Amino acid sequence: MISQSARNNAEWCHAMCRAHGIPTAFQERAWTSERRTPPLYPDAVTLAPDATAHDVLSEIDREAPGCSVKDSFGQLDLAADGFEVLFEARWIHRPASLVAPVAPDDVVWRPLRTEPGLAAWEAAWSDGDEDLVGLFRPELLADRTTTLLAGTTDGGTRTVAGAVVSRSSAVVGVSHVFGSDGDLERAWAGCLAAVAHFWPGVPVVGYEHGEDLDAATRQGFIPGAPLTVWSAD
């Protein structure tokens, strides 16, 4: 399951880079980008437990500031290469056999279809952080592997929750789950109910840490092995 989760996550990173016009490559043991990726996104993701430092570092730009590597299997030690651990997290998966949570009845969850809707979603997700304006490009709306889910109220005029769904051949990846009121329980429940409706019978995967991991676990996710994100100035 970790290999499938890592591949799914790399495919989402690839979709985000593609929306920004950044070319990337899938190698046997790693996904990499020769150019600096958008904010919050790694320059490499390991795809196999035997991936080496050379597999990732030889394929990315180590000169520009902000280089980062996501080690999906927690096997690499990049300290000697000038990196330090940015954070650690755990892979999570929710079996397809589990019954979907009941979505809060005051929030309607739907896939985003329009650029104004995307702008409202990003504003709610980023909580007004100007450094993240324009991160989610309109090109994502036409990407067949990606769906942005919006939870809205007031007849669809106010975005109060959301998530990103990335689809692979065997799993559905969920990330960027948020609730503007800070209620992660409601956000995860609504998101998972929507995923079960639009993509029934498919395992759901992702990775989380901290309060997000706790909230996901309470909604039926099973924590798995750790992953490590390394960063260099």
Overview in brief:
It contains five helices and eleven strands; from the N terminus they run H-E-E-E-H-E-E-E-H-E-E-E-H-E-H-E. The chain is of the alpha+beta class and 233 residues long.
What does this protein look like?
A hairpin with a 4-residue loop joins β7 and β8. The protein is globular and about 50 Å long. It is built from five helices and eleven strands; from the N terminus they run αβββαβββαβββαβαβ. It starts with a helix and ends with a strand. The longest helix is centred in the N-terminal third of the chain and has 18 residues. Helix content is 25%, strand content 31%. The mean pLDDT is 94. The chain has an eleven-stranded mixed β-sheet with strand order 1-2-3-4-11-5-10-9-8-7-6, with helices on both faces. The chain is α+β, with helices and mostly antiparallel strands. It folds into two domains: 92 residues, no CATH class; 104 residues, Aminopeptidase (3-Layer(aba) Sandwich).
Poorly predicted ranges: none
Strand content: 25-35%
| CATH architectural group of the largest domain | 3-Layer(aba) Sandwich
CATH class of the largest domain: Alpha Beta
Shape: globular
CATH-defined superfamily of the largest domain: Gcn5-related N-acetyltransferase (GNAT)
Individual helix count: 5
The structural class is alpha+beta
Count of discrete domains: 2
The H/E string reads HEEEHEEEHEEEHEHE
| Biggest sheet statistics | 11 strands, mixed
The mean pLDDT is 94
Total E-strand runs = 11
* Spatial order of strands in the largest sheet: 1-2-3-4-11-5-10-9-8-7-6
CATH fold descriptor of the largest domain: Aminopeptidase
Helix content: 25-40%
What's the N-to-C terminus distance? Answer: 32 Å
